[in-house]
Amino acid sequence: MARGQGVSRADVASAAGVSPTTVSLVLNGRADEKRVSKETQERVRDAAMRLRYVPNSAARAMVGKRHLTVGVVTRQPPNTLHLPIFEYFAVGAVEEAARRQHTVKILPPVTDPDSYDVYGVLRDAHVDGIVVHNLGWLAQAVADWRMPVVYAGPGEEHDELPVDRIGVVTTDEQGGMRSAARYLADDGHRAVGVVGGAVRPQGPPVGRLQAFIDEFAQCNAGVSHYIDPGFWTWSPEDGYRATRELIDAHPDITAMQAGTDWMAIGAMRALVETGRRIPDDVAVVGFGDFPVSAFLNPPLTTVTWPLRDLGVKAVEMLLAQLEDEPAGLGAVVLPTELVVRGSTGYAEHRRDLDTARRTVEPEQVSD
């Protein structure tokens, strides 16, 4: 499983016309201390950039018996989503690294390939490998730079990644949402609202919401009404706004699937404000199983999202790569499950039907 030979320090030295020692001094920030000329420093950096050289700090760590440093980079600043997604993931990554006496370095977030000099930052960060959160294209690029890398995030983003060179760990978001769709269909719901963000502005629903919509249709249960409150909109405010729009357009819905638990919180407020009882009039299902969900009134039925475990597994796979173990590559899918709580129940029309059936049952007559 060993990686192919990447660019070496000697290659950079040859391209820059200097010694390997000079390359180390420049790239380790000690050139001024050793009085290496500015012109030579620039020549070394240009050669390193041109050759996409990443210092092998893992080898240095093993020689010096120092702990390793794991770099973690995500798609965008965590606060832009108003969700603790990256935070839960990072906690798992940090805990697993610390358990093994290693360090995690959180790198600047990347919004797109032109956000900043990603390669330069990774090179200068002196990390032993990279965990890439929700950025399939960056995981591919890091692998091309011959650097150990693990992709962690939505399953639909890893389909094109070469798992013989990249470790991949995802969560079964779509499987969990299909379970939620079947559960609502089995409970007798026929008109279901779905609120959540899209893949891109004015685009289709994210994969897990599309899985819910498709599964509900496969159950021949009825109609799903999808409301998109906007690109990357997952907050309680977004859930509230989308739900008000949903019930104005489709007042007959008896159940709702929210894109996240946070959206479900806003949805529940909107339902109560419009005189609807939860779950008697409208059942509500979330996604994420965040700690607050069990303490809502009523407690929220939701699909688990093992974000902390995602961080743990990503670091575990990266360290396996650094040790040249087979477990560092390939694809791993973490399971999700539906957690049923008080926000869901039989659709009202089904409850009425069951009551009617019990009413007309003939009485047992004893001899």
TrEMBL record:
CDD domains linked to this entry: HTH_LacI (cd01392), PBP1_LacI_sugar_binding-like (cd06267)
One Gene Ontology MF term: DNA-binding transcription factor activity
Q: Which UniProt keywords apply?
A: DNA-binding, Transcription, Transcription regulation
Pfam families recorded:
LacI, Peripla_BP_3
Q: Tell me the domain of life.
A: Bacteria
Q: Start and end of every HTH lacI-type domain? A: 7-64
Please give the InterPro entries that the UniProt record associates with this protein.
HTH_LacI, LacI/GalR-like_sensor, Lambda_DNA-bd_dom_sf, Peripla_BP_I
Q: What is this protein called?
A: LacI family transcriptional regulator
Question: What is the source species?
Answer: Phytoactinopolyspora halotolerans
